[in-house]
Amino acid sequence: MKKLDARDPLVLDAHELPRRAGESKKIDITIKLPNFLTNGPVIVPAETEIDLDLLLEAVVDGVLVTGEVYLEAETECSRCLDPVQYEIDAQVTDLYVYEDKEITDDDEADEIRRMQGDLIDLEPALIDAVVLELPTRPLCNDDCLGLCAQCGIRLEEDPEHKHEIIDPRWSKLSQLKEEK
Description:
By secondary structure, this protein is α+β, with helices and mostly antiparallel strands.
């Protein structure tokens, strides 16, 4: 487990939140993403501004973090390569267990997020929430026709565009037709 740094924008400090179940603290901040996020076709670059609207709630075993993450991602259409803007509105719900709490089930130990002192590492929860919201096949619109495979022109500009493909076995016949 990496040592958390309170200066990291994705590390929340919950020292002001009492360890009594039912206590809560609202956090509304805008941060710059320290590392890029991607699902393959869409890359959210580092330094992208992210709005976090979170609620930290003290529960018996730790701190429950719930809320929304807003950001804008720019990519290109998978059919015509035009730029596409996406507004991502992801939900975060994660329990961060206090450092001193015992976890008995080994299967759960790998899935549970732990606090380091009063610090909460929000990066894994943010990755889980945002990457799942990114489109796997970004499109500029659902009816995008894309590009011509032979010449590369945009089919939106000429929907009737076609190339006459002649089977090489019949090419001699087409030459005879042209000679007439």
